[in-house]
Amino acid sequence: MADLKVPNLNNKSKQYLFKNKLPIAKKSKSKLLKESILMILAGLLIFAIGYYIPSQDLLFNGFKSNLNNIYTNLILLITYSFQVILVLFIVLTKISAVILFIGSIYRLHKILKKKNTRAIFRE
């Protein structure tokens, strides 16, 4: 009983998730200027990459048909995988049925063989 910890109900709930975890010191103006220049350069680089992609109109026009093709291919994939799983299930059940059949025949053979050998020893 001495190891039992009683919860302290006087604790006030923490209002903020990141309370006391934010840096108190502000960034300097030069650091803010460097970060803003880097952000502008990154944005310009992204715009330049997008500008040099050829035939953007064709890509945007074919977007809906591409999504439709993906959807139909996904449905076909699901149906084909269902058929494959069904065939695997059929094959595994047939194999297990054959194994059970062979095992039962072997067990019957052992039982009949033991009765014959016991009859020979009794005489």
Q: What would your notes on this structure say?
A:
The chain is an all-alpha fold and 123 residues long. It has two domains: 34 residues; 62 residues. The chain contains three helices and no strands. The mean pLDDT is 83.
Number of helical stretches of at least 4 residues: 3
Q: What Rg, in angstroms, do the CA atoms define?
A: 38 Å
Question: Outline, from the CA principal axes?
Answer: flat
Arithmetic mean pLDDT: 83
Number of strands: 0
Low-confidence stretches: none
Share of residues in helices: over 70%
* N-end to C-end Cα span: 77 Å
- How much of the polypeptide forms β-strand, as a percent range? under 5%
Major sheet characteristics: none
The count of domains is: 2
Sequence of secondary-structure elements: HHH
Query: Which structural class is indicated by helix and strand composition?
Result: mainly alpha
